Every structure is written in structure tokens, then in C-alpha cells.
Amino acid sequence: MPRDTGFPRADAENDFLRARRAQVLSRLAARLRREPDDVNIMLPFHEVVAALGQVGEKRLGLRTVRLDSIVGSVDRTRDFDRRFRPTSARVRERWQRLALARRRGEPVPPIEVYRVGDLHFVRDGHHRVSVAHALGLEVIDAHVTEVVTRVAAHGIRHRGDLIVKDYRRLFLERVPLGGRARVAVVLSDPWDYAVLGEHVEAWGFRLMQDEGAFLDRVRVAERWFEEEYAPVVELLRQADLVGDRTETEAYLWVAAERYRLIRTHRWDPEVIAALRSER
Question: Do 14 and 135 meet the contact criterion of CB atoms below 8 Å apart?
């Protein structure tokens, strides 16, 4: 907790001023570093859930939550930044009242949050979170409701990351991979998920033509991963063609190059040799 002068009301006022200064300096530093505009913006809960695809939710009851896991809000994204520092003097009166209560040791009710993966989003208690941060606390009591999503929340740092998650969710609806396949297929560019989805569907169409039988999306996804993707990625590893990309990015690149160079959907030594000469 910041230094106590013995005058709780004055200390609470200083707590707020210090939090505001930190927010202004952080915004200035981000501008000087030319960081994306959304790097300091609190994550909006509804956008996150929409990108990940909500499956359901369940109440977990009272829990102790780490403050650094609270990254967003249901409806107060303008009043506080990503670290819950106040963005204006609009919240000052209530903020200082809560800071004064904290400094006097008065009981403060638990906040209410949604949990998505290992991230938390405030439903009620934004000022309490902000004050707890300013006073140097590490945890806070919260009533937690867990939200289950189709796509994992792992890797979300700021708002721009939601675009990738949204495209990945749509890709997995088209290509419903499971288990290790779901984990293995990873792309950085959100548009590449759309391109890969088209590619897998075309591969599945050719497979059904060859076999003269209909296959649903789940079966096409399984066979594409086992018969096409995994063997090709292994060939690319052996040929040292992955480079600094993800394996899926390498696969997508060489799949396009394969057809451009040789006009074939097959994989053989001739294809690999042509690809290596073009690298």
C-alpha cells in the first residue's frame, strides 16, 4: 500500500491523483512508442465472447481473483484503461470514497466478474478494482461466473487480437478439428484462416469425388489433417521449409506454390525440389 500520512482522506485524494498521472503518462508513452491505439484500452467482454463463440456459462461462487487477470469490462471500457487507472476526473468522487474506506479498513463487498479462460471481465465493481490496483493489492474477492467458449481465450492481449480469434472460430465451424489437430493448426494473419478454410473444403470435395461417397465436415477435417496436413508438415520439416513461420503458415504457403509451380495437388520429390528452388 502507498505511504500512509495518517490523514486517510488526504491519502485517498492523493491515491486518485497518482492513478490519474500514471494513466496519462502511460498513454503518452504508448503514443511515443507508436503502439496500436488499442494497447491500453480495456477489453470489451461482449466483443471477446462474440469472437470466441459462447457455448454456455456457470456460476462458480465466491473466489479470490488475481488483479492482473482482470483485463476487461462488460460496460465501463471508457472510464478506466487496461490497468483500471481512471481515464478522467468523472469517477473521482466515488473512487476516493472507496479508497478512503479501504484505508480505514472498512469492509468492501466482492466484485462480480465473468471468467473466460484465465481472463476476467468486470460486471460490477470497476472502482473497487481500480482502487485495489492503486493501493498495490494483488488479489480481490469476486463472485465468478465462468463463460465457456468454442475457441480458447489464450493469446488475447488487446482488442486487435479478437480479429484473429473471430476468424479462427469461423474456420473451426467450417473445419471442425479436434484434439491435437485443433491445437496444431495456428495462423497469425486472420484472413489466412478464411483461405485455409477454402483450401480444406476444396480438398474434401476432391476426396469425395475420388471415393464416390459423401463425407460430413467432421470426417473431412479428420482426414485432411491425418492424410494431407500432418504428412506435408513432416516433409516441410525434413526439407527445412518451415522457417520462422508457424507450421500451418508454411503449409498454406507451399500448398499454393505447389499448384502454381507444378499444377498438381499431389506431394512428391519433384514438388519439394521445385519449392526449395523457389525459396
Answer: no
Residue closest to 195 by CA, chosen among 253, 133, 240: 253
pLDDT 10s digits, 179-189: 889 989 988 88
Separation of alpha carbons 96 and 19, rounded Å? 11
| % pLDDT > 70, the chain | 82
- Contact assessment for residue 91 and residue 79, using Cβ atoms and an 8 Å cutoff: yes
User: Radius of gyration (Cα) for the chain, nearest Å?
Assistant: 25
pLDDT value at 246 more than 50: yes
The Cα 199–Cα 141 span in angstroms is 48
Could you tell me how far CA 162 lies from the centroid of its own chain? Answer: 6
Taking the CA of residue 26 as centre, how many other CA atoms within 13 Å lie in the half-sphere pointing to its CB? 19
Question: Across 92-165, where does the E strand assignment appear?
Answer: 111-116, 119-124, 139-149
Q: Which of 12 and 85 is assigned the larger pLDDT?
A: 85
What is the distance of C-alpha 180 from the center of its chain? 20
- Identify the structural domains of the chain with CATH numbers, from first to last: 8-149 (3.90.1530.10), 175-278 (no CATH)
* Contact between residue 166 and residue 71 where contact means Cβ atoms under 8 Å apart: no
SS3 55: strand
For 196, phi then psi, to 5°, come to -65, -35
- 41 close to 80: Cβ distance less than 8 angstroms: no
